[in-house]
Specification:
6-stranded mixed β-sheet, two-stranded antiparallel sheet, single chain, alpha/beta, 40% helix, 263 residues
Length: 263
């Protein structure tokens, strides 16, 4: 057994995957893409910015063919699906050099790891927004329209299902196992995952990194408290109106039945 820092924190995730070797290993296993890179950029921003909303990518790398962005989020309630669609589209648009040529010179793929939220799909812990054109009636993908297969991939690491692809399975398990700060190395065969555990071993975490972990934890707790306060206010208003059943209010607010009855 090994004590590790949890990969729920941005600072630890960047420590784990911020080097080319580990970054390329993750991308190779999950996407079957062999990146040729010399560096991974942390907190990458575009200058000038694309659109009115600023983007800041946790981990960012590109070679002559691919641009790969990795994000990690842990139950940040202020984050939405649309935010990552915006990030993905910004990274795609930024590659266009001029209005003389609208062809994308890069394939842009964004991996978003969510370590706290459950997948909304009952079938797998992975969702993909692939930007591919489909027939309006049949839903069939039409090949050859775009040269590049851009993808936005959401990986819910705590939602391993029977249909979860094998190449994602061990990485998802490793990230999820780290959250309780203890991992069993004997459960893993991938040598890159074993190197990952060495990288985030508690003895390797600096005081500065611990301080940043604490700041992230406090931010998470503040967001959770604000979210719950808002849901309680909604529940109180619904109870005052008296038009919904308790079960309907539970569904509408996300509060437990016990908490709802105690209001």
């Amino acid at each position: 057994m090994k004590q590790v820092a949890p990969l729920r924190y941005d600072v630890i995730f960047k420590k784990a995957f911020g080097q080319p070797e580990m970054f390329t290993a993750l991308v190779s296993d999950l996407l079957d893409i062999q990146l040729e890179i010399d560096e991974v950029k942390n907190d990458k921003v575009f200058s000038p910015s694309v659109g009115k909303g600023a983007t800041r990518f946790d981990l960012f790398a590109e070679d002559k063919k691919n641009r790969v962005i990795i994000e990690v989020q842990h139950a940040h309630y202020s984050d939405t699906f649309e935010r990552f669609v915006y990030y993905q589209c910004s990274a795609m648009v930024e590659t266009i050099a001029s209005s003389n040529n609208y062809s994308f010179p890069f394939t842009v793929i964004t991996l978003v790891f969510l370590t706290g939220k459950k997948t909304p799909s009952p079938d797998s812990g992975i969702l993909v927004h692939d930007f591919e054109p489909r027939d309006f009636v049949t839903g069939k993908v039409i090949d050859g329209v775009y040269k590049r297969k851009h993808r936005l991939i959401f990986v819910f690491t705590n939602s391993i299902k029977k249909n979860t692809p094998e190449n994602y399975l061990e990485w998802m398990q490793a990230i999820n196992d780290s959250l309780d700060e203890v991992v069993n190395e004997e459960d893993y065969t991938n040598p890159h995952i074993l190197s990952l555990f060495e990288r985030i071993e508690k003895d390797q975490i600096s005081p500065e990194e611990y301080a940043r972990m604490k700041d992230e934890y406090n931010k998470d707790e503040s967001e959770k408290q604000a979210e719950e306060k808002g849901r309680i206010e909604i529940a109180l208003n619904l109870k005052a109106l008296g038009i919904l059943t308790e079960e309907q209010m539970v569904s509408a607010t996300g509060l437990s039945l016990e908490l709802l009855r105690g209001l």
